[in-house]
Amino acid sequence: MKSKNVFIIVAIILFSISCKPKLNEFVIDKNEYRNQLEGFWLGQCIANWTGLITEMDKIGIPVDGKGGGFYTRENWGGVDEPNLWGSNNYSDTIDFIYATRDSIWGADDDTDIEYMYQELLLENETLFLDGEQIRNGWLKHIYLNEENFLWVSNQRAFDLMQEGIIPPDTSDPKNNPFYEMIDAQLTTEIFGLYAPGSPKTALTMAYLPIRTTAQENAAWIAEFYIIMHALASDPIKFETLKEKTQWMAKNAREHLPNSSYAAKMYDFVLDHYEKNTQWEKTRDLLHEKYQINQDDNYLWSTKDESCNGCFAAGINFGASIISLLYGEGDIKETIKIAVLSGWDSDNPAATWGGLLGFMIGKEAIEKSFQIQFSNRFNIHRTRKGFSNSGIDTFTNMADKGLLIIDKVVTSQLNGSIDSEKGQWVIPN
């Protein structure tokens, strides 16, 4: 009897050990990751649409008397002022915009190119899109003669593609004067989520999509965001989202060349955050240093005569670091600050809404807002040529992401799929 009990105890211990991940690997539950990917798309949409209310309302230096000055936290819930092009069609007040359960989210330029790249990866059965595949995808899915929701570098790259030019030549400064505009940093973040815990792999996958529209600082900034998205799945434990997001940002900062204005902008904002400077004051100082004084060889406020560099990668990156640091991992507070910070405000808002939405998952987003949001997404609001008349769901979009990650885990990360447990097992 005693020997039988000993056998049972030993068996339980061995079973327990076998169920625990080894020290040199980490395990990701695919169902949990699906919920996180749904959170990514939902968080992006909430933040993107809320940011559209204030997009180009405040750009510091006015253009024809419009866009001067900045909002502060006191403007949240208040009247939305006209942007450079007039009034927006979304809301008269600055507050969260969302699609409730019985409605549908519309695509915008902060979500639609990422959606397109996901479809192209699956359609071409590859993890590394080449220039021809990217060009063919753009020509197939982007409107030519109607409103196509492209601006600056994206539009120039699209024009070049119609002339037969293939990425990365579409971002070559000799061909594309907008190579340091904002475009790549709003179209490629998702690649970080395809390589959980592996920024190197994510950057390899995103190398050409980034350089479809960006070079130099704009490319490094896009890579900064991708690194943060990849590190969101790193198994290192933190007590709070504030601690984890700041650790992620610190690691991504190491990728930026120290001599670049992108790195110097990050360091400038971080320094003021650590000094407990109010976020509005930090934003005003950022504007003064880089748009007025043009420090660190940041010249876009004069090189861009249309709106003093309001679409530039640099100043919008600086603004995004303000909302990231001062938001301290709180999705609602981060979106609020991003929306009020100025310039192309829907872009930083969408980036952090997507990242924090991924980190907490769809269910936690709904709990935070105490709202059941729509799960449906209309890609044909801005793009064309997709199945089901362009109507998709976040669940289906997340499932497609899982298919890509299956390939990444097994072919790039030397990992494996435990189909019985629904897990990825990845060497650490």
UniProtKB/TrEMBL annotation:
SUPFAM superfamilies: ADP-ribosylglycohydrolase
Signal peptide (UniProt feature, chain positions): none
InterPro entries to which the protein is assigned, alphabetical: Ribosyl_crysJ1 (IPR005502), Ribosyl_crysJ1_sf (IPR036705)
Name of the molecule in the record: Heme biosynthesis protein HemY
Species of the source: marine metagenome
Taxonomic lineage from the root: unclassified sequences, metagenomes, ecological metagenomes
